[in-house]
Design brief:
The protein has 257 residues and is α/β, with parallel strands linked by helices. The protein contains 11 helices and 9 strands. α3 packs across α10 and α6 packs across α7. It is globular, with a radius of gyration of 17 Å.
Length: 257
């Protein structure tokens, strides 16, 4: 079995690739665990200054694995995912998201947890929690409005519709849109620019940005966690996810292609 997360380090830049391409890098328990461990280890690695996070083509990350969620272990899987404050540990080093394809729901939350985003012209973004019948657990209701504004975030979440790369750029969700073949070279050039700076200063700047927004983010995360738990206890049904799965995936394919 291939590793579900691939890591390459060169020139003080780590490239981390979510590697379940046949499942569009959907976040099953194995991938969630491996991604968290890989990024946590790189944050402690003295040979690494910057991380580039991407997915194995054709997708960045299609979100939580609906097949696993619709199984008998689905509720436990959702409960376990919701206990963390994000898809990976809080990082002291920059993480550049190189979004090579769809970033959906949990995959959108992975992207939002990065320091900033570079997108391929094939990138598509969507929040489909409402289609699946689950609630965000990794800060989407806090981080998405920060990135694109409250009204646009509401539209994305309650419609479930996809946003293309150019629209994501216009809304401020991503910093750059480049041709697909230029995605990783562009992200690595930006990473090299960062790695060439004074690293204590880089990390202090990130820490300062986080501290400046900490009160609103922490309060928002507490609210999201509480209300998500209320929803899971009252309304989440793995059997219903399993029944809807084909329709959810078909609708997503029709909008993301």
């Amino acid at each position: 079995m291939p590793d579900v997360v691939l890591t390459e380090v060169a020139d003080r830049i780590a490239t981390v690739t979510m590697n379940r391409p046949d499942a569009r890098n959907a976040l099953n328990r194995e991938l969630r665990h491996a991604l968290s461990n890989a990024l946590g280890s790189l944050d402690q690695d003295p040979e690494v200054d910057v991380v580039v996070l991407t997915g194995a083509d054709p997708a960045f990350c299609a979100g939580v694995d609906l097949k696993e969620m619709g199984s008998s272990a689905g509720k436990a899987s959702v409960d376990n995912a919701s206990r963390a404050r994000g898809p990976f540990p809080t990082m002291t080093k920059p993480v550049i998201g190189a979004v090579n394809g769809v970033a959906v729901t949990g995959g959108l939350e992975v992207a939002l947890s990065c320091s900033f985003l570079v997108a391929s012209d094939r990138a598509r973004f969507a929040d489909t929690h409402a289609r699946v019948g689950v609630m965000p657990a990794w800060g989407l209701t806090v981080l998405l409005p920060q990135a694109i504004g409250l009204r646009r975030a509401r539209e994305m979440s309650i419609s479930g519709n996809f946003v293309g790369a150019d629209q994501a750029l216009a809304w401020g969700l991503v910093n750059h849109v480049v041709p697909h073949e230029e995605l990783l070279p562009t992200a690595r050039r930006l990473a090299a620019d960062i790695a060439g700076n004074d690293q204590p200063a880089v990390r202090q700047l990130l820490k300062t940005y986080d501290a400046a927004h900490a009160t609103a983010v922490e309060e928002g995360l507490d609210i999201e966690t509480r209300m998500g738990k209320e929803w899971r206890d009252r309304s989440f049904d793995p059997d219903e996810v399993a029944r809807r799965r084909d329709a959810i995936m078909a609708r997503g394919r029709s909008q993301s292609s």
